[in-house]
Amino acid sequence: MSTSITASMLYNLVQCPHRLSLDLHEDPAKRDPESKFVKLLWEKGTAFEQEVIQNLALPFTDLSTKPSDERERLTSEAMAREDELIYAGRIRTDNLLGDPDLLRRQGNGYVAGDIKSGAGEEGASDVSDGKPKKHYAVQLSLYTDILEQIEISAGRFPFIWDIHGQEVVYNLDAPQGPRTPETLWHVYESTLQFASKILSQPALTLPALGGTCKLCHWHTLCEVRLNKIGDLSLIPALGRAKRDAMIDHVKTISQLAHTDITAMITGSKTVIPGIGPATLKKFQDRALLLVDPKARPYLKTKLRFPSAKVELFFDIETDPMRDICYLHGFVERIDQDSSTERYIPFLADTPSAEAEREAFSKAYAYVQSSQPCILYFYSKYERTWWRKLRERYTDVATEEQIEAMFDPETAVDLYYDVVVRHSEWPTNDHSIKTLASYLGFKWRDTSPSGAESIEWYYRWIETADPKIRQRILEYNEDDCLATRVLLDGIRTLNVR
Ligand code: SF4
Mind giving me the DSSP string for 407-441? Predict the structure, then answer.
């Protein structure tokens, strides 16, 4: 029997087409071990689904304990009986296989739904921006397609039951927005077509370095391949889409570094769709840095940082599954003298609203008591979370007070306002880990990452092991110190 296309295949394809290809055609022994964080995500997802099901007030048909090969028949029988709600059913056509968490009777047919331990739409975890998630949409569309083909669909409006207890309906036939007339159903059709091609052509896709690689079990394999071919996606911020657009004209970092790009430019355009002359020049500059073993980072403009006696290097840790901010860490330095440094953490000892509020309140009071000071952080993430926390705990600070704290006169986002806009580095990305490591900083932990830290927090809450608590704090302290190392490194860069 030929391989059926499943919802999880489409989910993975939306994240990265090469991942689907490797999952289907590569030797599984070449995978990295699944990270503890990914395992935790699975466990929490399953636990959340079970909690939702156990608390269901509605009567439902539960097929979750039935063997896989029986679930399909039992689902057909349940739908023929017109059961109101079927949990863990299985539906199939010739080439599609669906395991929707829920099938709900609606009118004369069924709609499918999934239970997700995340927000039902795009946007910050508790502030939806109202856009559907494409990776959810293709899964729901596949179930709907099967229901249509077996002539029992109630319509193209499947649903997600999300982490906030809300039902989010996906209207698959609606345009995605005023500027995007393409419907989610169109997205599904093209994704399905692509999946069919990947299924039959193992060499169709290429790896590309991107944000999804970090947690992917093919990371090591892809990294080796990308470096071997000198793939363009190893240039910071270039990514898969631009690499694919460029590949007919220039294939490798070395080629780009040594190409006369003026031949590719006519007026305000280049021969590469979607890439203008300035962007092409920027990527060539980055390629030149990567091919030169003696290359050094540099500034593109002279910078002047605000001055104050006290500098605070700030980093937070958050748990997206519980949607809480559990740690605010600061490294405080006086007069730019690193021997004065001290680390001040505010940790939520339990994953509760009270503990989150207390940590936030104390962190805010600490920043106020340190005034006048300059606050340094890496990316808008801290500001976004502090705005969110203020909305949650309106008694801690006013909107004006939080905005004043992040005033660009006294608060510097080293990532967006400095690194991205005004500097170039001979590295493959601009993450704090990469740049501080480039400058010689070493994290005390052997596997430092925000994802790992979340896993430690879960384990510390479960076990109260003080060693895990210490690991969480040291990791956060090192992130703050790395921000300081980066600032000091940037201060020494030459302007080109
Ligand atoms: S490591 Fe990256 S490029 Fe490779 S399969 Fe995974 S997500 Fe895709």
Answer: -TTTEEEIIIIIIIHHEE-SSS---HHHHHHHTT-
Question: Ligand 1: does its nearest atom lie under 6 Å from the Cβ of 14?
Answer: no
Grouping H, G, I as helix, E, B as strand and the rest as coil, residue 329 is: strand
Ligand 1 atom 2: residue of nearest CA: 213
Would you list the domain boundaries of the chain?
5-200, 230-294, 310-491
Give, for 488, the enclosing helix (H) or strand (E). helix 466-491
pLDDT digits (tens, 9 = 90+) for 145-197: 999 999 999 999 999 999 888 899 999 999 988 888 999 999 999 999 999 99
Report how far residue 112's alpha carbon sits from residue 226's, in angstroms, rounded to the nearest whole number: 39
Q: Residue 19: CB within 6 Å of ligand 1?
A: yes
**Which of 11, 12, 16, 428 is the best mutation target for the ligand 1 pocket, counting ligand atoms within 8 Å of the beta carbon and taking the most?**
16
- Check if 198 has its Cβ closer than 6 Å to any atom of ligand 1: no
408 closest CA partner among 366, 367, 380, 368: 380
| pLDDT above 90 for 119 | no
- Give the strands of the sheet with 91-92, arranged side by side: 5-6, 96-98, 91-92
Q: Under CATH, which number does the domain 5-200 receive?
A: 3.90.320
Q: What angle do CA 280, 220, 237 make, to 5 degrees?
A: 20
Residue with tokens 């290097």: 313
Ligand 1, atom 7, lies closest to the CA of 213
Beta strand 159-161 with 167-169 is antiparallel
| Per-residue pLDDT tens over the stretch 383-441 | 999 999 999 999 999 999 999 999 999 999 999 999 999 999 999 999 999 999 999 99
pTM, full prediction:
0.89
Closest atom of ligand 1 relative to the 16 alpha carbon:
8
What is the 8-class DSSP label of residue 267?
T
Ligand 1 pocket member 22 (CB < 6 A) = yes
Name the 3-class secondary structure at 152. Answer: coil
Q: Which of 9, 13, 15, 18 to mutate to test the pocket of ligand 1 (most atoms within 8 A of CB)?
A: 18
Considering the four listed CATH numbers 1.20.120.1080, 3.40.50.10490, 3.30.420.10, 3.90.550.10, the one that applies to the domain covering 310-491 is 3.30.420.10
- Cβ of 485 below 6 Å from ligand 1: no
Lookup: tokens for 159? 């649903």
**Exposure string over 452-465, b if 16+ CB within 10 A, otherwise e:** bbbbbbbbbbeeee
212 lines ligand 1 (CB under 6 A): yes
